Structure formats: C-alpha cells, structure tokens
Amino acid sequence: AERDRIRERIGQVKADQKARGRYLGGKVPFGFQLGESGELVPHEAEQEAIREIVALRAQGKALRVIAEAVRAKGHNISHEGVAGALRATGI
Questions:
Q1: Model confidence over 19-46: pLDDT tens digits?
Q2: 77 φ, ψ to 5°?
Q3: Buried-exposed string 11-25: b where 16+ CB fall within 10 A, e elsewhere
Q4: 66-76 pLDDT tens trace
Q5: Is the CB of residue 85 less than 8 Å from the CB of residue 30?
Q6: Neighbours of 52 (CB within 10 A)
Q7: Predicted structure pTM score
Q8: Angular region, 23: left φ>0, alpha ψ -120 to 50, beta rest
C-alpha cells in the first residue's frame, strides 16, 4: 500500500512539473537548450535547422541526406535525430 502511495505522489509531481513546462530529464531534444529554471528554451540556430529539415523532407529527401545537409552546416545530428525532430513537429 505504501508503494502505491509513493507511486501516486511521484506521478502527481511529474504531471505538475510537466504542466508547468519543466524539463523532466533525459537528453535535451534537438532545437532546445535547458533554461536556468529547468525549462526547455528554443535554441534559435537549431530551430532554423529544424525548419530546413522540414523543408528538405517536404522535397522528398531521405533522412540520411537531410542529416548530411544539416551536419554540413555545423549541427551534430544523425538520421535518427532528424526523424525525431520531424516527429516532434508532427510530420
């Protein structure tokens, strides 16, 4: 019973933190950086790269080709990272 109460409290805290826009851990997603108070803040250079990723995908380019194009501009991203960025934008 105590474990269930702990699980519920932790779940409530995480839900509250997520609702407040706080970052809950793990790898910071491409296009963002961690702010001073723990929230995700858009990283403008990477946001521009995401816009380019979306445009290249709209042209029918493959994920690896897109990753190479973005890496050529100085961003460290793999084809899997490109897929994740596209999923995050809803594409």
A1: 877 778 788 888 999 888 778 889 999 9
A2: -145, 140
A3: eeeeeeeeeeeebee
A4: 999 999 999 99
A5: yes
A6: 15
A7: 0.72
A8: beta
